[in-house]
Amino acid sequence: MAITPDHRLDDTDWTMPEFAASRVFERVFVDGMALVEETAAYLDGPGRDMARTLPREAGLTYAAWSMELTSKLMQAASWLVMQKAVRDGDMPREDALANKYRISRDGPPLNVADQRGQGLPDTFLNLVENAENLFGRICRLDAAIYVDGHSGEASPVKRQIEELKAAAEDGAFDPLRIWGRAR
Predict the structure, then answer these.
(1) Is there a contact between 87 and 20 (Cβ–Cβ < 8 Å)?
(2) How confident is the model at residue 67 (pLDDT cuts 50, 70, 90)?
(3) pLDDT tops 60 at residue 40
(4) Nearest to 103 by CA among 162, 34, 28
(5) Cα distances (Å, whole numbers) of residue 174 to 18, 114, 178, 179, 181
(6) Quick one: DSSP state of residue 54?
(7) For labeling, which of 19, 25, 153, 171 is most exposed (least CB within 10 Å)?
(8) What is the dihedral of CA 167, 173, 177, 181, to 10 degrees?
(9) How crowded is residue 155: how many other Cβ atoms within 10 Å of its Cβ?
(10) Rounded CA gap, 25 and 19, in Å?
(11) Looking at residue 8, what is its pLDDT?
(12) How many CB atoms lie within 10 A of CB 21?
């Protein structure tokens, strides 16, 4: 199961309840939880056995990346489960707005391309790549749904785009005027 980075959000102005009830959420939830299970099975089985045979440098990378992979997948799974709990009425929507439930990328993603051919197994690298794609997608979803911690609040970029659309529809398109007002 591959989760690709080209799974992008459409132009929908999501709010938390709408998103959690959508097909997009169901797909991300199913794919995400399947990836968590697949990764756990690999790391606890064939990955553990394989790690013992790796050269020193590859073994160190494997150990560090395994921890980061596990951490990102747990954050992603927690976020998905929280969204489902809100949708199903098991968690108040207001609680889900708290900053402690936000998910974002703190540093750059793990660079799988640089590790190909360096001693790490392709199965492991594919799992890392899929996890990075899932994590990035969930970060984008979180940012789209929870702008400044308030579900449904329009972002400055979205407001600027709406102003550009309105100006174009009025026939008085002056991007510099709109840009100056947005600053």
Answers:
(1) yes
(2) very high
(3) yes
(4) 28
(5) 34, 45, 7, 9, 11
(6) S
(7) 171
(8) 20
(9) 13
(10) 6
(11) 44
(12) 11
How far is residue 76's CA from residue 95's CA, in Å, rounded to a whole number?
Answer: 18
Q: Kindly list the distances between the CA atom of residue 140 and the CA atoms of 88, 148, 175, in Å, as whole numbers in the listed order.
A: 22, 13, 27
Residue with tokens 């596990």: 70
Residue 75: how many CB atoms within 10 A of its CB? 15
Residues 6+ apart with CB under 8 A from 132: 72, 109, 110, 112
Q: Which residue has the tokens 């489902």?
A: 84
Higher pLDDT, 11 or 2: 2
Q: Give the orientation angle of helix 175-182 with respect to helix 156-170, to 10 degrees.
A: 150
Examine the pLDDT at 72 and tell me if it is beyond 80. Answer: yes
Cβ atoms of residues 136 and 79 within 8 Å: no
Mean pLDDT over 97-126 rounds to: 89
Q: Is the pLDDT of residue 65 over 50?
A: yes
147 burial class (0-12, 13-18, 19+ CB within 10 angstroms)? middle
Structure tokens at 173: 């398109």
Which residues have CB under 8 Å from 116's CB, separation 6+? Answer: 122, 125
